[in-house]
Design goal:
heterodimer, A: about 450 residues, mainly alpha, 21 helices, globular, B: about 675 residues, alpha/beta, Aminopeptidase, endoplasmic reticulum (chain B), transmembrane (chain B), membrane (chain B), transmembrane helix (chain B), disulfide bond (chain B)
Chain lengths: ~450, ~675
């Protein structure tokens, strides 16, 4: 079959609005019920849902310090950014009842943003497929995306975000992780729309708020440059370089603007050490679902700086090899980074992982090449169930010890890493099949085996 | 990473796992069970040892000589009792005894509301819905001369005995004797709290809650006026007479918690030093300690410990301390006719030794094991030793999971079908938009023989069935309370209403498969495989989490549920499967294990019918106390069974009765892409 008739049947992508209102209603209802139940107080102190940065208990502490005219950043208690603090301060001054409503709204808006991200990425994928379809193998017709296939994706993504028990619990715990997810989802949406001004602003807001999205600027810059340059894009091309630099420049100027804005309420930059410094230096070793705390409690103090560098580099370094390997797929790269930072950041919560999970349906067409999906699902379930049990045994009953809980956090991180690597593998393998047909043969006519070493 | 990334070794693994699946499962299960049972045999377990060197047991010379005080006080208390049989605790008299020794003495009053009638009160209160218990605890603090009351040790005793409601006057006598001896010494570096508790568990809970400033809505108590520091350890004393033949050491606490093995070991060693026999669950250590009879005896002791631990109910007041991270054991002095006996002198010396060792502690108990089983008083099986066999038993589930996971979505010969491999499929043209769009031959109503065309299991079909099961579990968890409330309206006796609530949902849900089979949730073979897979995954999670929190419960559930649930398949031999499933249902397991417990403990056999009646009565009381303890003390065994184990079991039950031959409604291809 030639490429011509395929080009004519350009797949139509029409997301279905069906069932959206049910998802919204159900998500909202579950959150409201959980918030008003007696479980809410218990959830607020769950370390799986609230890290020292995002904990609501600490936020109330910050608000009360602010009320007494003391800068919350002078102590070692409060680590949220000044703009968020001021936001909650205003809300609590207007009416305390606004705060739960605000958290509900944040999650709903994030859901909408995720839905829009889905719509836009699907459209982007189809357009891209249309551009590249000529270079694909003629046998790979069955692998091509169809509009029908993608129509339900945004809906699934919305459901995966709003109906995910992890985000529901996180919202009921008043964890500001919801807010972090909102800005990250905003960054993803702005990025996929390709407007430089908006995209740089959104990544700046996300990295202002949660530090790690700083690395998002690399795939975002590549994406914008590719939009502008089209097929001429190359790292060596001066125009492309200029475009990359412009995006980076835009990002950092927005970030500078946000920092300046945060300077105003307190008239000092102390907050920078308490927020960004706190995330980077990880001084609080209270157990959480991340990899930092156990390692750093066990370590001799004089190795601390070295390993801090190693751990933080580990969190951000993958952006470079991925930028090389996924040069043509910056959107996929960006989504992988969301997952990577959710595992390797210094204070992760379940909410962070939930955002990445809700992005997965858009890559659903790669799932059939994934090999460990079942294993990952099982590991995930186990760690989510066992984490509170072993925490209880360790902290309340004193019969288990730190190793028990750490084992669970390790399993949790491993599950996420498996998921990420598997997704990357599946994506690359699909790309390979698109170019070489669904069942490529070796020289001797044997079906070849794919191997990841 | 070879297995995860290399398709060749992966294929080899899955081929082996699929080909030899059943033999491997049987092997894993048999080896797991045999290995676990073998742990009771001496060469496979270890001798207990002191991990905490600070205890220095038996290093000091016992100076206890006030046994005559014990005799006098216990007699005096008995005389008061005879005047007011079954009356309230003689608080003023007890306070006077402590005050007479010059101790800081305080009382604490409390009111416990029991949302259901308590076992004891029901006869008197009749149909009264909420029972209120009033009680008074008396405690006295011996202030340590050497420190500023930062740490404390507790010697507690219930006012009445746990089971037969006899007065515990001997323990009180010994307590006063020890107090009078202790207060003369200047070496105490920890406060000693002497606590006499009214209404055993409830009084203990009231005191501990107030001491640690935790609150419960059902328990109101007056504040404690005297306090000491953080409690390091506690010894609870129950004496049935002034002469005892042995000490029965009770360990199992609330929700299967156990005290640190060092404390247990300390008590056992010091009893040995004073030549007092120690028993666990009234089981004597055997001599010689090897050989078949010894193995049988050790296995019996270990089984009794596991059965007790699995209930999650404390078998003495010490059990409530454990929740507050305080190590505690109960010493029950028992008089067995025909054995040599020991008086207050030796008992006092044992307790003196224990308290002097505890006095030496520099930090909290943390060294030795918290997770262990004891086949004999001086042998232990630690978590590292009992987890591998448990893992082997769970491996059966894991193997089955991998087996079905391999087969989901394969057109390979169906292991469920054998020769009748051909599946008649009714292809429905209802497409939900995620189909491939290219099977032009799919028309409504066309029946065709499926040979090559296959579909993955329909993941979404899990949602209704799992949620139905969970809702059933939720109803079962709240129904005892609801039924008690309803029963009150209709004048039913609260007991019967409660039992109806607890078991009614179970019997009602047996008919759930009927409801599911009739509706649109008909399944392809692959969907059923997926169901089975999901049910096994859930089961493995529940068992692993349960075993982490309460090993005995996890093990007892696993050893029975795993083989049956691994075998379950829809269709064939439905009656046999149903019988097996009923046996491993939560209620069935309760009956089986209660029967096992009675078999191990009761020596006399009265014939089939009386034994069965007795079994029913015990099961009835077990359910009652499980539910009531859940509300009063916060044990979670009933909730766990209702919210996790029961729904999972129901899921398997639905699979058994799932009709596979029902025409398939949907043929969704490429389902995995969504």
């Amino acid at each position: 079959m030639s490429a011509e008739p395929r080009a004519e049947q350009r797949p139509q992508f029409r997301p279905v609005p069906k069932a959206l209102k049910y998802i919204f209603g159900l998500g909202l209802g579950a959150r409201a019920v959980l918030m008003s139940s007696h479980l809410a107080g218990w959830l607020q102190d769950r370390l799986e849902l609230a890290s020292p940065v995002t904990s609501w208990t600490r936020m109330t502490e910050g608000l009360s310090l602010l009320d007494h005219g003391i800068s919350p950043y002078e102590g070692d208690m409060f680590h949220e950014t000044p703009l968020v603090l001021m936001l909650f301060y205003c809300l609590s001054k207007i009416w305390g009842g606004l705060i739960p409503i605000f958290f509900l709204l944040v999650d709903l808006v994030t859901g909408c943003l995720v839905h829009e991200v889905g719509t836009n990425v699907c459209r982007h994928l189809l357009e891209k497929q249309g551009r590249h379809v000529k270079s694909y193998s003629t046998d790979s017709l069955s692998l091509l995306l169809t509009g029908k296939q993608l129509n339900s994706v945004p809906r699934l993504m919305l459901g995966a975000y709003l109906l995910n028990p992890l985000t529901i619990a996180s919202c009921a715990a008043y964890s500001t992780t919801g807010l972090h997810n909102l800005v990250i989802a905003g960054a993803l949406l702005a990025a996929v729309q390709g407007n430089r001004l908006l995209a740089t602003l959104a990544t700046a807001v996300a990295s202002y708020q949660c530090v790690y999205p700083e690395i998002f600027i690399i795939p975002v810059a590549m994406y914008i440059a590719q939009l502008e340059q089209g097929s001429r894009f190359s790292f060596r091309d001066p125009d492309s370089r200029l475009s990359l630099l412009q995006t980076a420049g835009g990002h950092f100027s927005w970030l500078g603007f946000l920092w300046a804005l945060s300077f105003l309420p307190f008239g000092s930059m102390d907050w920078l050490y308490s927020t960004r410094g706190f995330v980077m230096l990880a001084p609080d070793l209270t157990p959480n679902m991340g990899l930092f705390w156990y390692f750093f409690t066990e370590m001799f103090e004089h190795f601390r700086i070295f390993f801090l560098c190693v751990f933080q580099l580990n969190a951000v370094f993958y952006v470079i090899p991925l930028a090389v390997k996924l040069r043509d797929h910056p959107m996929f790269h960006l989504h992988l980074l969301v997952g990577l930072t959710a595992v390797f950041k210094s204070y992760p919560t379940f909410g962070d992982a939930a955002l990445f999970l809700s992005l997965l349906p858009v890559w659903g067409h790669c799932f059939k090449y994934m090999r460990n999906l079942f294993l990952v699902v099982c590991m995930w379930l186990y760690s989510i169930v066992l984490a509170p049990v072993l925490w209880h045994l360790w902290i309340y009953y004193g019969s288990a010890n730190a190793n028990f809980f750490y084992a669970v956090t390790l399993a949790y991180a491993t599950a996420q890493i498996f998921l990420l690597t598997d997704l990357l593998y599946a994506f690359l393998r699909r790309e390979f099949h698109l170019r070489h047909g669904p069942a490529p043969k070796e020289g001797q006519g044997m079906p070849i085996l794919m191997n990841l070493k | 990473m070879g297995l995860l990334s290399d398709p060749k070794s992966r294929e080899r693994f899955s081929r082996i796992a699929a080909k030899y699946n059943s033999p491997l499962c049987v092997l894993a299960y048999v080896v797991g069970v045999v290995w676990f049972l073998a742990l009771a045999y001496k060469p496979f377990n270890h001798r207990t040892y002191f991990s905490e060197n600070a205890l220095l047991p038996g290093l000091v010379e016992g100076k206890f000589r006030t046994e005559n005080v014990a005799t006098r006080i216990s007699q005096a208390m008995k005389d008061i009792k005879d005047v007011s049989k079954d009356g309230p605790m003689p608080v003023a008299w007890i306070v006077n005894q402590f005050r007479g020794l010059g101790l800081d003495t305080y009382t604490q009053e409390y009111i416990q509301t029991i949302p259901v009638p308590s076992a004891r009160q029901s006869e008197e209160q009749g149909k009264e819905m909420f029972v209120q218990l009033n009680g008074t605890n008396v405690y006295a603090i011996l202030r340590a001369p050497r420190t500023a009351s930062t740490e404390a040790i507790v010697l507690s005793a219930p006012y009445k005995h746990y089971l037969n409601m006899d007065h515990n006057n001997h323990a009180f006598g010994l307590m006063i004797a020890l107090a009078s001896h202790f207060r003369k010494s200047s070496y105490w570096s920890k406060d000693i709290i002497f606590l006499l508790v009214d209404y055993d568990e409830i009084g203990m809970e009231a005191w501990l809650q107030e001491y640690h400033y935790t609150k419960s809505p059902l328990l109101k108590s007056s504040p404690l006026h005297g306090r000491s520091g953080s409690i390091q350890a506690a010894i609870n004393l129950e004496l049935h007479s002034d002469q005892v033949s042995h000490f029965n050491v009770k360990l199992e606490g609330l929700n299967g918690l156990l005290p640190n093995l060092d404390l247990v070991n300390l008590v056992v060693q010091l009893c040995g030093r004073e030549r007092i026999t120690v028993k666990l669950h009234q089981q004597r250590d055997t001599f010689p300690s090897e050989g078949w009879p010894a193995f049988q005896q050790n296995l019996k002791t270990m089984s009794l410990m596991m059965l007790h631990q699995a209930t999650g109910m404390p078998n003495g007041l010490h059990g409530l301390f454990l929740r507050y991270h305080i190590e505690a054991v109960t010493l029950e002095g028992v008089l067995e006719p025909g054995r040599s006996t020991t008086g207050f002198y030796r008992m006092g010396r044992v307790l003196e030794g224990v308290f002097r060792s505890l006095n030496n502690l520099l930090e909290r108990f943390h060294q030795s094991f918290f997770f262990y089983l004891l086949p004999a008083s001086d042998r232990y099986v630690s978590i590292g030793m009992y987890m591998p066999p448990f893992g082997l038993i769970l491996l059966v589930t894991a193997l089955k999971i991998s087996f079905w996971a391999v087969y989901i979505g394969t057109p390979d010969p169906d292991p469920w079908d054998g020769e009748e491999n051909v599946v008649i499929e009714h292809i429905h043209s209802k497409k939900t938009g995620d189909g491939q769009g290219d099977n032009t031959d799919s028309k409504r109503g066309v029946t065709k023989i499926r040979t090559q065309n296959y579909s993955d299991g329909d993941v979404w079909s899990l949602v209704p069935v799992v949620s139905c099961c969970q809702v059933a579990g939720f109803i079962a968890s709240i129904s005892p309370m609801v039924m008690t409330g309803l029963g009150h309206l209709f004048g039913t006796r609260p007991y019967q209403a409660l039992i109806t609530g607890a078991t009614g949902m179970f019997f009602a849900s047996l008919f759930m498969p009927k409801c599911i089979t009739r509706n649109r949730l008909a399944c392809t073979v692959n969907t059923l495989r997926l169901w089975k897979c999901a049910a096994l995954v859930l089961q493995a999670i529940i068992l692993a989490a349960t075993a982490a929190a309460n090993f005995s419960l996890g093990m007892l559930l696993a050893v029975t549920m795993v083989p049956v649930c691994a075998m379950v398949r829809p269709g064939k031999l439905r009656f046999l499967q149903a019988v097996l499933m009923l046996l491993v249902s939560p209620l069935g397991l309760l009956v089986i294990y209660t029967g096992l417990y009675l078999l191990l403990t009761e020596t006399e056999y009265h014939g089939v019918v009386p034994s069965a009646m007795h079994l029913c009565t015990v099961v009835y009381y077990n359910i009652l106390s499980g539910v009531i303890h859940g509300y009063v003390l916060g044990t979670w065994q009933y909730t766990l069974l209702a919210l996790a184990v029961f729904p999972n079991w129901l899921f398997f039950w639905c699979i058994v009765f799932k009709k596979r031959d029902v025409p398939v409604v949907e043929n969704k291809e490429e389902k995995k892409t969504s």
